[in-house]
Amino acid sequence: MKRGVCQCKAALRCAPFFASPDTLNPATMNQATVPTAHPQALPEPDLVCSAPGWERVEFISDLHLRPEDPATVSAWLRYLEHGRFDALFILGDLFELWFGDDMLQRPPEAPGSELLQRSIQALQSASARAPVYLMHGNRDFLLGSAFAQHSGVRLISDPCVLEFAGQRWLLSHGDAWCLEDRSYQTFRQMVRAPAWQQGFLARPLPEREALARMARHASESQRSAGNTAATSAPDAPDYGDVDAATACQWLRATGCQTLIHGHTHRPGQHDLGAGLQRLVLSDWCGLSQPPRREVLRLDRQGQVHRLSPEQAAAPTPAAQAPVPAA
Ligand SMILES: [Mn+2]
C-alpha cells in the first residue's frame, strides 16, 4: 500500500543551499558572506503532501547515533520497530558522523558497522510500513542516494514543506539559519558546494574518517564553557539560535505558519508573532541523566504532542480496547 505522496523535486534535493561560485573562491571564502535570505533568492523547497489516511506524523532529529551511546541506539531501533507513525520525518543529524555512503561497504568488524547495518535494516522495515523522510544535518550532510536506496528512506531538501492537517509546515534542520555563527556559515558554504564534496569523497575512506573526526573535535572544543540558556540541555552545543527574522521570512515565503527544526538541542515552542511560531525538537542522548529522547507528533487535527519514544510506540487506548462489532 502506498501510504504517502512525495513530490520531491529531485533536482533540488541535494542542491547546495547557499552555495554560489564565490564559495569556492579562497579570496572570498574568508569574508563570512552570511546569507541575507532575501525572499527572491529563496530556492523552492521540496513539498510533501500527506496521504488521506495519515493520523500521526512524527518528527525526530539529532540522535547523533554512535557506538559510544548504546542506549540511544537501542531506543532508536525499538522506536523504528514499534512506532505507530503514518509518516516519519528525521530532520538531520541522525548519525554523529557520515563521511560517504561507501561506509556501507566496510567490513562488519569496522567500528560503527554493526550500528549502521542494524539501522539500515530497521529503516528498511519501517519504510516498508510508512514513508520515512530524511533531511541532512550538519553532521551527516554527505548521506547520499546509496544510503537512501539501501535503507528505503526518501531524502528531502532543507527546508521542506509538509502539507498535513489542513496546514503547511516548514521543516528544516536549522543550522543554515543560525546566522550569528558566521564562521560556521562560511564553513557550511564551503562543505555544501558540490565541487568540495566531490573532492572530499574522492579521498580514501580512512582519510575522510580522520578528517571528519578532526572537524568534530575542533567544533566541540569551540563550545562555550558556559551555555546558560535555561531551556538548553546542560551539554547542548553553543550553536547560537535560529534567526527569528529569517525564520519569519521563510514562513511567509512558503505560506507556512509553523517551523519545525532541530540542531540547537533546545526543545521549545516560540511565538514569532503574526500567527507564526517555531517548534524546536529535542536531541537524543542516552549518556545524560535522565536520558533525553523525544518524538514530536502532529495528529490529524494539527495538535502537537511531545512524547517519549516509548509513549509514541504504545498502542492507543482505542487499539487496547477495541469496540466490539455490533
Ligand atoms: Mn545539527
Question: How are the SSEs ordered, and which strands pair?
Answer:
Blueprint: E1 5-6, H1 10-13, H2 26-29, E2 46-49, E3 56-60, H3 70-82, E4 87-91, H4 113-129, E5 132-135, H5 145-151, E6 154-156, E7 160-164, E8 167-172, H6 182-191, H7 194-201, H8 205-221, H9 244-254, E9 258-261, E10 268-273, E11 276-280, E12 295-299, E13 304-307, H10 309-313, H11 317-320
Parallel strand pairs: 2-7, 3-4, 4-5, 5-6, 8-9, 9-11
Antiparallel strand pairs: 1-2, 3-12, 7-8, 10-11, 12-13
The structure holds manganese (II) ion.
What key phrases describe this protein's structure?
11 helices; single chain; seven-stranded mixed beta sheet; binds manganese (II) ion; 326 residues; 13 strands; alpha/beta; six-stranded mixed beta sheet; Purple Acid Phosphatase, chain A, domain 2; disordered N terminus
Cofactors and ligands present?
manganese (II) ion
Number of helices: 11
Shape: globular
What is the CATH topology descriptor?
Purple Acid Phosphatase, chain A, domain 2
Helix vs. strand class: alpha/beta
Proportion in helices = 25-40%
Radius of gyration: 19 Å
**Name of the top-level CATH class:** Alpha Beta
* Whole-number total of structural domains: 1
GO molecular function, one term: manganese ion binding
Biased composition (Low complexity): 309-326
Membrane topology: Peripheral membrane protein
Enzyme class: hydrolase
